Amino acid sequence: MSDMTPYVLVLYYSRSGATATMAQQIAAGVESVPGIQARLRTVAPVSTTCEAVDPEIPVEGAIYADLDDLRNCSALALGSPTRFGNMAAPLKYFIDSTSSLWMNGALIDKPACAFTSTSSLHGGQESTLLTMLVPLLHHGMVYAGVPYSETVLLETRTGGTPYGASHLAGARSDHSVDAHERALCVAQGKRLARLALALDVMRQNAL
């Protein structure tokens, strides 16, 4: 695809690998839709010291996001493990750096979704997804959850919510992302891609 092909930014933070796996499944869903691609990006851990110690390019996995990745995307999928019912600090730190995009309205009318992973079934999946939604609304984005037309929502016994894809990682983070959770990630990616293409046309017609 050319550099002009619209893309969905799949932006995530992952400690044990589950959120990264979900991000890859969402990206697969995006890229199953013709005419759009996925761009996987992560964020650096937050250091408690005053000086950053991580390399500019991660040793493995997706590269770190910058504001241009977000500015130029057609849609955003935002993923994080749960930390006390909210997104993890490294992802929040990145989101807090996006004030310039907010001031310029760069993300208005772009679709977005969220996904998360928790250690326990009632460990804050839904509250994390809902709190991740808040800054996206401040940016004027259009939130897209998972509709119940995805019948896997009625079958899953682990992760999966109408607010976004989720995963039950287990107390030791040793549960792999199961078939139902993967299916919901792919479905969410597909829906986000379709909305991105439709809303791109709407924004272009408004110019």
UniProtKB/TrEMBL annotation:
Keywords: Flavoprotein, FMN, Oxidoreductase. Its cofactor is FMN. The keyword tRNA-binding does not apply. Pfam families: FMN_red. Residues 8-193 form the Flavodoxin-like domain. GO terms for molecular function: NAD(P)H dehydrogenase (quinone) activity. Its EC number is 1.6.5.2. InterPro entries: Flavodoxin/NO_synth, Flavodoxin_CS, Flavoprotein-like_sf, Flavoprotein_WrbA-like, FMN_Rdtase-like_dom. The keyword Lipid biosynthesis does not apply. PANTHER family: FLAVODOXIN-RELATED PROTEIN WRBA-RELATED, FLAVOPROTEIN-LIKE PROTEIN YCP4-RELATED. Belongs to the WrbA family. NCBIfam families: flav_wrbA, PRK03767.1. This is NAD(P)H:quinone oxidoreductase. It comes from Halomonas casei.
